[in-house]
Amino acid sequence: MALQESGEMYVETIYVLSLESSEVRGIDIADHLGYSKPSVSRALGVLKDEGLVKKDNDGFIKLTEAGEILAKRIYERHTVLTKVFMDLGVDEETAAEDACRIEHYISDKTFEAIKAHMKAQEKK
Predict the structure, then answer these.
(1) Which helix (H) or strand (E) holds 36?
(2) CATH assignment at residue 18
(3) Residue 37: what pLDDT?
(4) Beta strands of 25-87 (E only): which ranges?
(5) N or C end of the chain: which has fewer CB within 10 A?
């Protein structure tokens, strides 16, 4: 499934918010991303059609199994890349911003190589 960067951002945001609270609402997503509520509603509709999110009986937004798998993949890329950049001497804010941009475009092959390199460096 080829989801656009914005869709990946929403899925990752829902995941991050769900780590903080089991009750994620559209307004929480809008506040976190700085987007309007109507924009979030439209995006959630698309993600629901893609089978990545659902609403529970109380109206809270949940990731489906496929959504959670995707979110964890993106979030791992974000955290690993942020750490790599910080290890290189980049300040945390810049490292996180750059990781956020790159996480959506880096190939699996390159990302796995970065993780392997980091693991090898930790053993030294």
Answers:
(1) none
(2) 1.10.10.10
(3) 92
(4) 53-55, 61-63
(5) C
Task: Indicate whether 63 and 83 sit together in one domain.
Answer: no
Give the whole-number percent of the chain exceeding pLDDT 90: 81
- Return the pLDDT at 31: 95
Are 65 and 78 found together in one domain?
Answer: no
d(CA 34, CA 32): 6
53 and 107 inside one domain: no
- Domain that residue 52 falls in: 5-69
pTM: 0.86
How many residues belong to the chain?
124
The residue ranges of the chain whose pLDDT is under 70 are 1-3
82 and 58 both lie in a single domain? no
Cα 8 from Cα 4, distance rounded (Å): 6
Nearest alpha carbon to residue 14 among 3, 30, 29? 29
